[in-house]
Amino acid sequence: MFRAILFDVDGTLVDSNQFHVLAWAEAFHAAGHDFRLADIHAQIGKGTDNFVPALLPDASAEEIEKLAAAHRALFARLYMHRLKPFPGARQLLQRCRDEGLKVMLATSASGRELERHLDVLDARGIVDGWTSADDVGHSKPCPDLFEAAAQRIGVAPDEALVVGDSPYDIRAAGAAGIRAVAVRSGLFDDEALAGAIAIYDNVGDLLDRFDESPLSGRSATGGQVARP
């Protein structure tokens, strides 16, 4: 029986992945590196410490930090004001609380970005806490964020469930010994999301099917993939 749900934010609760792709593309271009948007999107979900080396394996620590700063500035200036929650996001957080579950946010975003996400979701009075890239040594797909989130609310890995949109959420959860449910709203296909115990179109779909989902503790699916 799960006692806590650990939610990823970007691409899961907040519709932001495409804006991160564009901000990263501009940051790379300004530094003399051009990548296809699809190649950038394929790495979305990782924190900067893992994201930049995936595209620039020889990047120095200084170059990684410069790119990260450029991305943060571009995202804040051009896209932060355009963020919106996915339909049903806040209601799903509330439903989890109503079911007696602890609710944590665990994101590879910076603490500043997370603060904005909390405002976008109007979630401060719902969630029990959060962890961001600022709180740990390594971001997803390393397990640090989910481990820290579980520890912060005092649950064992087998008492928690992750909800995320990227393969890196699923890998990070697995590395932490936590099972994961995936949503397709981050625009990753089902093959990339393999390893999740169930897959839903988005958090609205998950909310609509809550009673039969792994989140409810009443699911009889046995971990089968949910289909539309």
TrEMBL record:
InterPro entries: HAD-like_hydrolase_sf (IPR050155), HAD-like_sf (IPR036412), HAD-SF_hydro_IA (IPR006439), HAD_sf (IPR023214), PGP-like_dom2 (IPR023198). CDD domains: HAD_BPGM-like (cd07505). It comes from Sphingomonas kaistensis. This is Membrane protein. GO terms for molecular function: phosphoglycolate phosphatase activity. NCBIfam families: HAD-SF-IA-v1, HAD-SF-IA-v3. The lineage of its organism: Bacteria, Pseudomonadati, Pseudomonadota, Alphaproteobacteria, Sphingomonadales. It holds the Pfam family Hydrolase. One of its GO terms (cellular component) is cytosol. SUPFAM superfamilies: HAD-like. One of its GO terms (biological process) is DNA repair. It comes from the Bacteria.
